[in-house]
Design goal:
Blueprint (H helix, E strand, L loop, with lengths): L1 E5 L12 H15 L3 E4 L12 H20 L8 E5 L10 H8 L3 E4 L13 H13 L2 E4 L2 H10 L5 E4 L19 E4 L6 H15 L8 E4 L5 H8 L6 E5 L3 H8 L4 E3 L9 H8 L4 E4 L14 E2 L3 H13 L1 H18 L2 H12 L4
Parallel strand pairs: 1-2, 1-3, 3-4, 4-5, 5-6, 7-8, 7-10, 8-9, 10-11, 11-12
Helix pairs in contact: 1-12, 6-7, 6-10
Length: 355
């Protein structure tokens, strides 16, 4: 089957790493692992992070041009399904519903969120289009329980909703960590929620008992790197900033890491949690929607604020048996439910029945 694929928030070819890019690539890999042909229909990014109506007008025009180009493509007649990843009010799918309707093929969404409150305000037109795309979908795959609530509430009668747990684009587990190395933190360094997570980490490190022996490796880069470096400077050489790492270098960190610390402020779910647990590394994160879908042990999810983070970090630092026990359970869970094979089966169970 030939499947048309589009990711309006961030195309899989985008040069800047992120969880959205990683998941877009993972979805394509999962479909291809199931023997499907996947065509990336457009690299147009339709993300408006500021609520800028002039920019939205520009995106509407660019989408109109892309839609015409796609429909004129000689390969369009071969597509049997259109699949869009991550449709929401800041990055609505302005292309897929039109093309799918013109070609008479099923339109499917993965990780589409509903936000009716955004129908008023600077994103109103984009929110309308995101809602219209959700309404047009034959099937919506949701990744988190939080997203499912609004999708169930607002679903048209004939629409199917399916749970697709977040997953890693690999067929098997990586080598297990020795759990003897430093703590880890892995995340992009951007203003807003990401920087807020780094702020909490720095505050939690400062709250650890002075007698505690700890080190931390941080992998990530971005426009807020200077702010992160300033936060971590008081800890001297106990914190190492590695910058942006390629896949192999990041894997090397995971093979020795003892604990992943990432609060996950407003995270949708977080690929880094899956990567750490796949290596058998326990996680410390805030107990919030989205995070609960991918951080499985209750003792790994803590209340908001640096004090709770510090307490959980201290517990894991001083209890190697707990690290190993929780890490092993998380690794088993990832291997069973959050790798390529499980995702491929879930996707194809639905998609192959549509044509």
């Amino acid at each position: 089957m030939n499947i048309a694929f589009f990711a309006p928030l961030k195309p899989p070819t985008h040069p800047v790493p992120s969880g959205d890019r990683a998941m877009a690539r993972a979805l394509m890999a999962a479909l291809e692992a199931g023997g499907q042909t996947v065509t990336l229909t457009s690299e147009l990014r339709l993300f408006d992070g500021r609520g800028d109506t002039a920019q939205q007008d520009r995106f509407f025009e660019l989408a109109r041009q892309e839609t015409a180009r796609i429909l004129a493509s000689p390969t369009a007649k071969d597509w049997r399904v259109w699949l869009t990843y991550h449709n929401y009010y800041k990055a609505p799918d302005l292309i897929g519903p039109v093309v799918a309707r013109a070609l008479g093929i099923p339109y499917i969404l993965i990780e589409s969120s509903r936000a009716r409150k955004r129908l008023i305000g600077p994103w109103a037109r984009f929110a309308e289009q995101a809602e219209a795309a959700s309404d047009a979908a034959h099937t919506i795959f949701y990744m988190t329980m939080r997203d499912s609530q609004a999708l169930i509430r607002d679903a048209p009668k004939a629409q199917a909703l399916r749970h697709l747990p977040p997953f890693l684009a690999r067929p098997d587990l990586p080598p297990a960590s020795s759990l003897t190395g430093p703590m880890l933190s892995v995340g992009m360094m951007r203003p807003g929620d990401k920087l807020a997570s780094y702020t909490l980490i720095a505050q939690a490190l400062a709250a650890l008992p002075t007698t505690t022996d700890w080190r931390m490796d941080i992998a990530g880069d971005g426009p807020a790197r200077a702010e992160v470096a300033e936060m971590m400077a008081p800890f001297g050489d106990r914190v190492r900033l590695h910058g942006l790492l390629d896949t192999d270098a990041l894997s090397d960190l995971y093979t020795q890491g003892s604990l992943l610390v990432w609060p996950g402020v407003n995270e949708a779910f977080g690929i880094n949690y899956l990567e750490a647990q796949a290596a058998g590394i326990p996680v410390v994160a805030q107990d919030r929607p989205g995070v609960r879908d991918v951080v499985f042990a209750p003792m790994c999810r803590v209340d908001a604020g640096p004090a709770a983070l510090a307490d959980a970090m201290q517990n894991f630092i001083t209890d190697p048996d707990a690290r190993r026990s929780i890490g092993t359970r998380g690794r088993i869970r990832i291997g069973t439910h959050h790798l390529l094979g499980a995702a491929t089966e879930t996707l194809l169970d639905t998609i192959e029945g549509l044509t």
